[in-house]
From TrEMBL:
This is asparagine synthase (glutamine-hydrolyzing). Pathway: Amino-acid biosynthesis; L-asparagine biosynthesis; L-asparagine from L-aspartate (L-Gln route): step 1/1. InterPro entries: ASN_synthetase/amidase, Ntn_hydrolases_N, Rossmann-like_a/b/a_fold. Its EC number is 6.3.5.4. One of its GO terms (molecular function) is asparagine synthase (glutamine-hydrolyzing) activity. It comes from the Bacteria. The lineage of its organism: Bacteria, Pseudomonadati, Bacteroidota, Flavobacteriia, Flavobacteriales. Gene3D superfamilies: Glutamine Phosphoribosylpyrophosphate, subunit 1, domain 1, HUPs. Coiled coil: none annotated.
Amino acid sequence: MKFIFSSQKLDLKKSSDFPNLQKFDLSCGSILLNDPNTKISHNGLTTILDGFLKDFEKKDDLEARISASEYVFETWPVKDTITGSFCSMIISEEKNEITLCSDLVNIYPLYYLKKKEVFFISNSIILLGRYSGAEVDKTGIVQRALGPEFMNIGSRTILKNCKRLLPGEWLHFDLKGNILKRKFDNSLYQNMSGPFFEEGMLEDYWNHYKKETELCTAGFDQVSIALSGGIDSRIALGSVPDSKEIHAYTFGSPENYETGVARKLARIKGAEHFSFSNLSLYFPEKPVLKNYIKTTEAIKLNSWLELLENIQIEVKQPLLLGELCEGLPARNIKKFNSAHFRKKNFIKYYLKKDQFPLSSPNPENFQEWKAKKRQLLVSWFDENWFKRMEMEGFRKEVIKNTLSDIEEIFDRIEAHNLPYAELYDELFSWYTFTRMELSRQVNICNEKFYAFSPGMSIQMLKKTSNIHPNLRLFYRFANKMLKNEPDLRPFRNVPTSQIPLFPQQFPDFLKIPAWGIRSRIDDWLVKRMIKSKDPSKRVKLFPGMNWAKIYQLPDLEERMESYYQPNFLGDEYAKTFIHLTEKRKNFKSWPFANMDIMSGVALNMELELIKKNS
């Protein structure tokens, strides 16, 4: 779904290449929108909603949407009966005021820009750039063009003076774009459980998860789900009401081990399963790639194109995804998730289930932690990259601005008064990598489908964050829920894709060594393939994705060159990644996934699309 609002009238001709855009004139401006189902008008308010936002006290679905919108127009944070994963714009023509708000992690982007006397709001940086004519922001461009994650930090975007809503942010504007009120939802981790399981804890969590799925699929008889072989997507699958017809989709070859795991899970649930594979879509022809960049702005992991290019649906319907934060297994508490820690403490924490040694937060360890994050971030801003991007002389300015940007994230974390210092890393990851990168999994699907992650909703994520880390780490909570809850129990007999052969219900003293052995064999097989320079050789103990094969397209270099015609990032920048692609093809460089390569490609095409008709 894509929309743009402007306080001045909008000309549809500027966006004629966007399919299905319709114009809605208001007394205070214009809205262009390609999905009228995401717009509701109620009691003098006009709401545009990306995602879902509902008051589950209301039984009627439309009433639930209206009640929630009317509440958040005036009040923030939300009350306990309002939930959703969303970004929303709510306009009052009577009051000449606008509210923008986001869920706790800001999965769905929402941008705003005031240029002279005109106010723009959009969930498309391309549309906003076109209609506003805003200049590019050099710091924003560099952040997107370079590692470690190729993403903007804080509220910064690639357009000058254009900001993106922060996680949990609520802004109230007048129609000139002046901020009247600003609030944040700091409700994560605020009602932490004890370190031991309590009666009713699992049932309460699971019942609420099912409620979230019921809310975001209400009104649809058919529901789709992106199904992998992992834990998070089988939890999402188990939450779908039995009354729904379920279509489960897995990208990758039908022969892949993970595809087989997903197929078994779908069969248990009574879902119809589909899998698709097309390795040429990892470097698609430019028109295909350009279309997805224009309509989703979420290109990076092109595995999703294997699904989206092959799925044909007549009516737009919900597509469910697993929880993107990896919050239930606490995978982003870095201290306890390193391979070294797991090996060293296998008996203590996997077998004996001892409590993890959590530390109290204090100003000193928070400052030390922030210093390390700053150092890592700016370490990527090497002078050579600025030369390649023809931005010599801007390095100091970019570093200064980026350090200011990361303070926005630090301030959001500090406002939570976290109960344990180890949670600094977790919330930082949610506010950066999940928000900017993993969110692409939802947003790339959100044009063909209504893409939702029930586990990312406000009330669900609060519940997850309030489970003591001692219960979340090493899948303790997830495993116990799979064991105890009848809806999930049948899935325990199916192994995960990470730990083959052994069903999920088997004890850790069998599963974890099997995981380690499989990983070692996979590493050896990959090294053998690289040494032989033969991409047809086996690369995994169990059939799976062979990234080396995506680089074997006969016209790979021509496709890469076409992506940078025209080029907005500098000739040497483009050549760097074109050469990297060739090196991976010829095994002169490790044939990793191509997400780093596609990051620059996507950025360049976004800039090309902004310039079109602007």
